[in-house]
Structure formats: structure tokens, C-alpha cells
Specification:
Four Helix Bundle (Hemerythrin (Met), subunit A), four-stranded mixed beta sheet, flat
Length: about 240
């Protein structure tokens, strides 16, 4: 898989056969072949000509647009999507079924187990932080016990437990970085330090990959059931960041 990351201000991107050409001030400064690409990430004030977008769509290359300094998510350009409407209808029906809550609990369970793995790896290397890291692990282990399948946990309770695990995780995680980076807590929109900036960028790219893969198989990544059991649009980026 290939990723093209474009972040030079006032760059003009044009189609040149089976490649993208980059112009600045009227002068061509480079090219990139389209065939190896799976995604293009565009940051800030960059012009992509329609012919270039058309070719990217034909090749199934998605384009992710991010804001300037904050690298905030702005949108996704997609080519032709899966046209299996029956599959999406079945997806919406399942969202009204207990399956939805069970699936969500499973995803959160995998997430918090991943947090524990990170902290346990840190424990092996940072004896000076053993108390802080061990305390966070114990807190998250308590969350895992409450989320386990069969506990019948509701959506609001699940979100609360996920938030509690995240608070414990980041309280310990921030200790792993030098004070010179000013990483005291998880902050978003905009991130206030280099570590938060990198986390936000990685979460945004992860969100992009999840949305792209869900769409490729014909499902809808942006719909959920609200508390009144009415279908409503919800961008899942907030779940990750």
C-alpha cells in the first residue's frame, strides 16, 4: 500500500498521464506515480485539479483532507462506492438489534486490552514509573471485568467505562515522555504539544483507513441508532480521537 502525503503550501497538483505532477509558482517540481497509491493525504492550502481527482477516483485512491497547523479532519474524497443496497439495509436492521451493543462492547474491550499491553510493555522498561503504570493497569483491568460479554451493559455505561479507562491510561502514558514536550494530558482541536499533534494525526489516519475499508465492502461507516431508535448520521472520528 502506498501513501502520498502533500503538505506544501500553495502547491498545484495536476494529472500527467499515469502520474501526479506538482507545480509551485508555475514550475514543475516533481511527480508521483498513481498506480502504487492507496491513499493521498492533503494538508492545508493545496489545489488538486479535477482531472487528477477523476483519475484517482478511477484507480480507487481515496483522498483525505486535513486542516493546516492542527491537522484536523476536514473530509474524504471517494471514488465509486459499493452499490449493494441490500447489504446496507441489513446493516441498519442489525443496528436496532442487541448485536449492535454486543459489537460495540467487543470493540471497546479490544481497545482497553490494547491500552494494557502498552502499559505493560512500558513497565518492563521504566522501573521508575512502576507505581503509576501499575495503578493504571489495575484500573483498566477493573473496567475489563465490567465490559465482558454477557454483562448486559448499555451504551451510556459502556461509553462511561471507555472514558474512565482512557483517563487512567493517559494519566500514566503522559509520564513516559520528557517534560520538555509539554505532554501533560490528551488534548484535541487543536492539539497543544508535539505528542498530541502526532496522536491526533495517527487517529485521523486510522479513522480514514477504517472508513475506507468499511466502504469497500459495501457497509455504511457513518450511521448509528440514536436513543430514540431513529437512524442518524454520526461521524465516527470522535470515537477515536
Amino acid at each position: 500500500m502506498g501513501t502520498l502525503y502533500i503538505d506544501r503550501k500553495d502547491l498545484n497538483v495536476r494529472l500527467d498521464g499515469q502520474a501526479l505532477s506538482f507545480y509551485h509558482g508555475g514550475t514543475r517540481e516533481g511527480t508521483a506515480p498513481i498506480l502504487p497509491l492507496n491513499r493521498v493525504v492533503v494538508v492545508g492550502n493545496i489545489v488538486l485539479e479535477a482531472s487528477a481527482l477523476h483519475r484517482l477516483a478511477e484507480q480507487g485512491v481515496h483522498v483525505l483532507f486535513l486542516g493546516g497547523k492542527g491537522r484536523s479532519f476536514k473530509g474524504i474524497f471517494r471514488g465509486r462506492l459499493h452499490n449493494n443496497a441490500i447489504l446496507r439495509v441489513r446493516q441498519y436492521r442489525l443496528s436496532e438489534d442487541p448485536f449492535a451493543e454486543e459489537f460495540a462492547a467487543g470493540q471497546v474491550l479490544r481497545k482497553v486490552k490494547g491500552q494494557i499491553r502498552v502499559l505493560q510493555e512500558a513497565l518492563e522498561r521504566r522501573n521508575d514509573l512502576r507505581k503509576e503504570l501499575f495503578s493504571a493497569v489495575r484500573t483498566i483491568e477493573g473496567v475489563i471485568e465490567k465490559i465482558r460479554p454477557g454483562n448486559g451493559i448499555g451504551r451510556d455505561s459502556l461509553m462511561g467505562l471507555e472514558g474512565g479507562a482512557a483517563a487512567a491510561y493517559f494519566k500514566a502514558y503522559t509520564k513516559l515522555f520528557p517534560s520538555s514536550l509539554d505532554f501533560a494530558k490528551r488534548t484535541r482541536r487543536p492539539p497543544t504539544d508535539p505528542v498530541n499533534a502526532m496522536l491526533s494525526l495517527c487517529y485521523t489516519l486510522l479513522h480514514f483507513e477504517v472508513v475506507r475499508e468499511v466502504e469497500v465492502i459495501g457497509l455504511d461507516p457513518l450511521w448509528r441508532i440514536n436513543r430514540n431508535n431513529n437512524i442518524s448520521v454520526n461521524c465516527i472520528l470522535d470515537t477515536y480521537t
